[in-house]
Design a protein that fits this description.
single chain, about 210 residues, alpha/beta, 3-stranded mixed β-sheet, 5 helices, binds iron/sulfur cluster
Length: about 210
Amino acid sequence: MKIQLHRFLPLTTSEGPGKRACVWVQGCPIHCKGCGVPWTWNPNHGIRTNVEEIWTQIEESKRKHDIEGITFLGGEPFEQAEALSVLAERAQEDGLSVMTFSGYYREQLEELAKPGAEKLLANTDIFLDGPFEIDHPDHVRPWIGSTNQGIHFLTDRYKALENKLSEFPDRLEIYLKDDGTIEANGMVPTEVWKRLLKDFNGVKLKR
Ligand code: SF4
């Protein structure tokens, strides 16, 4: 089954609880004002790959980095829910937790009934929903960008964190690649991003 991938990160501690691998899919039709990753919007960009190849990378992350779970980000994960639901199901069978982001609210997803959406949610432990609203930034809860967005604990796996979210700091990871480019991920306030981009003036920054 094919996946249009933006980026695979074998190890992160910024996109959910504990050590995780992260899958950013390519393509998002939601186009939130102030989106931090507009280069993930075009569904024809990115890398054409498939479930098997990504699963191999996830298994390698587990072996090498002892990850406890995977996180699906975008782009919009529910535009490719069918393929991601296969990965999510396999991850759960393998003992890995699953965290899934969406720019759609859960109620919208129920109405849209996208192929694979139900199965993806059924295999998700933490579900983060809603579009980014630039005028309502959230500096209290981790992982998300605005106060309208929800963090839903769909299973008991991380339920104990539900009332402790403000204890998780926002994190930013920056990688200097062998080819001289810099990759970054995580969630920090827009002003911090602007300062960083100014400091990185002249350096090619990829997210
Ligand atoms: S849903 Fe996410 S990726 Fe899509 S436009 Fe909004 S912030 Fe950007």
